[in-house]
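Apologies for my clumsy wording, but can you show me some protein sequence, whichever is easiest, together with the matching structure tokens, please?
=====
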Amino acid sequence: MKSDKEETMMTAKLINVEGSKIKIELTLELSRSMLDTEINIQKGLNEVGCIASKEALKYLDTDGSPLKIGEEIWKSKGEQPKEYQTPYGEVIVNRHVYQRSVGGKTYCPLEREARIIITSTPLLAKQVSSKMSGMAGKEVKNDLLENHGRKVALSYIQRVRPLVDKSCCNQGSTGNPY
């Protein structure tokens, strides 16, 4: 038997992508419990955030055309799926991965353009780093779950923290809204 929370209707749909603009529709079911309604709103907004983040990452990817880096030509191995962690949830993006014709290491322009840290988008990495400055890892894990609806592994939190440098999160930003 499903609980009321499991039966709650909630859907976020990508309606349109036009250049750098996206349109997303969210449908939520309200509850007679304000707390349940607020939890549903948070889940719905996280769904919207995942859809928007996925589209933002795709927007930063290349079209698969060969790249000239220095004197070398790098060719796309095609789109390959990868999981990325965002403040709203995990998203899987098919992105171009490049390699030289002689083989060797690969390069993903999307990850450079998006300033991915391990598999985190900059805002999630910044949030984790900020929380870690005042809390232990387990507390950060609980805070992300309780206050943001984000379930993340403690090992993930511990790996991201040392790699975050405030300057990396501010590069390419058009302003800090906080």
The CA atoms of residues 42 and 148 lie 8 Å apart. Confidence is low (pLDDT under 50) at residues 1-7.
